């Protein structure tokens, strides 16, 4: 028994803990690097005699510079408004679309579901060309609506496909019983199906929130001037001057910009994983 137990422990160390440790170090190193650069004095940033992996002096000067000498608070406000607006619009549309495709049987339903998912595969670099014409035609340049209305073009396809698969995992008998008791179709969906599909809805919401918060190309083209910049655009345009990189404030902006996404995943990671798994199996 001792030999079997020692072999099992050795196998777990070799095939489980060691690969996980390597992957964790590889995954967290960029965040560690951002953090030590953001709190290291300028005098040490380019000092080749000091090991760059160690932190010998600590300062918050880069954070103070970022918050007081740049428009970072304004960029954060713009990013939050656009992200919440686009996420709300995309999630509402995706719930209705996913419910229709997952619950109703009609001619062309499967083809429509496949086409919606294929729309997600179209690169945003191709979509923004016709979208720029639409934004110009309606006079939306440099307004919040330019991004709130264009982000759903790449958020709704995946979120709808994800929710369509999740709605199919919920037994139809539940809403049929509710409708027999007098509930309308909308009431059955709102009071019975939607609470049960909460993990899938949260997954779609986190997915939409993350992509909207980090999006760069559309924000640069449609809202990249003046005070309307978002965090990704403002950080790159104002903290990089020609070949001069302000590494300290750049890394401080990256750290602060990562906080909302990290908090969202920290609180909803279980629902996010379960929602993705159910959608993948039943979609």
For this entry, give a set of tags.
283 residues, single chain, 14 helices, 2 strands, globular, two-stranded antiparallel sheet, mainly alpha
Question: Short description, anyone?
Answer:
This protein has 283 residues and is mostly helical. It is built from 14 helices and two strands.
Spans where pLDDT lies below 50 across 5 or more residues:
none
Broad shape = globular
Order of helices and strands, N to C?
HHHHHHHHHHHHHEEH
How many strands, which pairing sense, and closed or not: the largest β-sheet?
2 strands, antiparallel
Strand order of the largest sheet: 1-2
Overall SS class: mainly alpha
What portion of the residues fall into strands of 2 or more residues? under 5%
Query: What would the average pLDDT be, to the nearest integer?
Result: 86
Distance between the termini: 45 Å
Write a structural description.
- The chain is mostly helical.
- Helices cover 77% and strands 1% of the residues.
- The chain has 14 helices and two strands.
- It has a two-stranded antiparallel ribbon.
- The longest helix has 37 residues.
- 31% of the residues are buried.
Topology:
Elements: H1 2-38, H2 42-45, H3 61-69, H4 72-103, H5 109-120, H6 124-137, H7 144-148, H8 152-168, H9 172-180, H10 185-196, H11 198-214, H12 217-222, H13 231-239, E1 240-241, E2 244-245, H14 247-282
Antiparallel strand pairs: 1-2
Helix pairs in contact: 1-14, 3-14, 4-8, 4-11, 5-8, 8-11, 8-14, 9-10, 11-14, 13-14
